[in-house]
Every structure is written in C-alpha cells, then in structure tokens.
C-alpha cells in the first residue's frame, strides 16, 4: 500500500515517525509504541535513516519488521550520506525485497556536525532531487521528500529554497513532510509558496507534542528558528513544574493541530522519539481523529 492512498482527503488522518532503536531497551520501547498505535490505524509509520553503519541496518530491519509483523503501512527513510549510487541502489533493492513501497528520499546532513560542509560521496549524489529520480527509476515506489517552513538552513533565502523544493517535488515526489515549526501560519505560508509556484503536491506538517522543555530546544535546533516570544511567555511559567508544563504544552500542540486541520491539512505527521503516549493522547482524546474511539472532552 502506498502512503498517498492512505491519505483520503475527505477526513483528516495522521502518521507517526520512529527512529531505529539504539539498544535493547529502546527496541522494547519502540515495539510497545508500534503495537499500541497499530489499533489506531495511522496512515503510515516511518522509520528514520541513521547517520551510519549499524543504525542503517537497524532502519532496514525495523522497517522490514513493520511490514512483515504488523498491519501497518511502512515508509523507510533513505539519505545520500556517504553512499555511492551503487550502495543506494542496493538499499532500495533491500527495501523492495522486504515489501516496502514507500521511501522518504533525503539528502541528509554531514555526519558528525550537521552544520558542517556537505561533501558528496565521490560516486554518490548531491541533492535529494537526484535520489527521488533514482528511487523512481528502480520501481513502483511512492516517494516523499522533506520541506522546511523557514527554509532549509543552507538556503540563501526563501525564494531559492522554494525553487529547489518545487524542483524536487516535480522530479517525482508524491508528497512532502515538513520539518518542525512553531506556529500553524509558518507551515501555511510554506504551503502558499509552493502553491504560488503552481505545484499541487500534498504537504504534510510535522508535529512533535510539546511535553517537555527539551522538545522546545529540539524544535529550535531542527527548525533553525527561535521560540516565538508569545510561546516563551506562555510556557516559561511552567518550567519548574513538569506536569503543568506537559499539560500546557499539550494544549499548545492541540491548538496547533486544530488550526492546521481547519486549514484543510489532510494528515498530521507526528515525530514520536519512539514514545507513543503523547501522540495517542492528541489524536484520540484531543482531536478525535480515530473513528470508533471516543474523544474525551479536554479539561
Ligand atoms: P535537499 O532537498 O537536497 O536540500 C539540501 C540543500 O540544498 C537545501 O538548502 C536546498 O535548498 C539546496 N538545494 C537543493 N537542490 C539544489 C540544487 N539543484 N542546487 C543548489 N542547491 C540545491 N536526516 C537523516 O539523516 N535521516 C532521516 O531519516 C531524516 N529524516 C527526515 C525527515 C524529515 C521529514 C525532515 C524534514 C528531515 C529529515 N532528515 C533526516 C534531515 C535532512 O536529511 C536534513 O535536513 C538535510 O539537511 C536536508 O535534506 P533534504 O533532503 O531536504 O536536502
């Protein structure tokens, strides 16, 4: 099953992202999360691609297990980091042989320092766009790419960023998933820029439930944007009280999701860090996105 076929458009759905487990305890946590989400019928689950070696094997293994051992639709991430084209073909072949039909094609960051200089593998690829073409050329895959609401950190300006994004989408991407952002408008402006360029590819917002102050720092790190003053003011008074911080953070996330859904976003993509509890709370109890599961009124 392809990811695009899991996003019906007439009712909002959600998807979840996991990371390859680092150790046995993480593996247990991951599989508990996967099992607990299975009954909620997410549109798809994706597994990120590690920066190197064993992490990559664990991505392939985990994504394969999702296909063979669960009822979930699986999407594997793939990056061009330190890979020759021959190796990339090999990994894509592995994915295909495991029955994986969905690939998120990424350039990736330089290993070690993500802000360091990007060095292409001598026999590899330079941009995600080339990987989109490669995956497409190797089979009947549904291909996703990444998008950046504030522009990719390496982009000179938003216009250039939009131009390259649209070019990547037109190279054969079926959808894009956005990096973390703080306010719904930030995502909606990205969507407007892409639409204004005449591109109709579906864009999915990436959401991470705001359960701890660390999630805020992570969002700053990944988005390249500072926390908006209004959000700082809203959350600051709870920094010494983890329970109250979580409650208010979940309210913030719920409001963000509600605004995105009101703007016609067909699906929400949740970054989980291999923990499902907060995502379940948002999609079931707060947004009521899962048919047959009763949404609890939010206090
Ligand atoms: P690209 O689209 O190739 O863009 C990279 C830069 O080059 C941008 O600045 C772009 O504007 C510019 N550019 C693009 N085309 C051209 C061109 N033709 N000429 C000149 N400049 C150009 N990383 C991982 O390691 N593993 C993962 O699993 C992973 N999953 C992710 C999932 C999502 C949803 C997101 C948003 C990010 C993910 N990342 C992952 C991080 C991602 O790999 C990095 O953010 C990386 O820096 C950008 O990858 P990209 O595919 O967007 O690159």
UniProtKB/TrEMBL annotation:
| GO cellular component entries | cytosol
Q: Which GO terms describe its molecular function?
A: FAD binding; methylenetetrahydrofolate reductase (NADH) activity
Pathway(s) of this molecule: One-carbon metabolism; tetrahydrofolate interconversion
Q: What keywords sit in the KW lines?
A: FAD, Flavoprotein, Oxidoreductase
Q: What's its catalytic activity?
A: (6S)-5-methyl-5,6,7,8-tetrahydrofolate + NAD(+) = (6R)-5,10-methylene-5,6,7,8-tetrahydrofolate + NADH + H(+)
Cofactor(s) the protein needs: FAD
Q: Name one Pfam family in it.
A: MTHFR
Q: Does the keyword Signal apply?
A: no
Its GO biological process annotations read:
methionine biosynthetic process; tetrahydrofolate interconversion
Tell me the InterPro entries matching this sequence: FAD-linked_oxidoreductase-like (IPR029041), Mehydrof_redctse-like (IPR003171)
The keyword Glycosyltransferase is assigned to this record: no
Tell me the protein family, please.
Belongs to the methylenetetrahydrofolate reductase family.
UniProt name for this protein: Methylenetetrahydrofolate reductase
The source organism is Actinophytocola oryzae
